Amino acid sequence: MFQDLQQFGKILILGGILLAVIGVFFLFGDKIPFLGKLPGDIYIKEKNFTFYFPIVTSIILSLLLSLILYLFKK
Question: Which domain holds residue 21?
Answer without folding.
Answer: 1-31
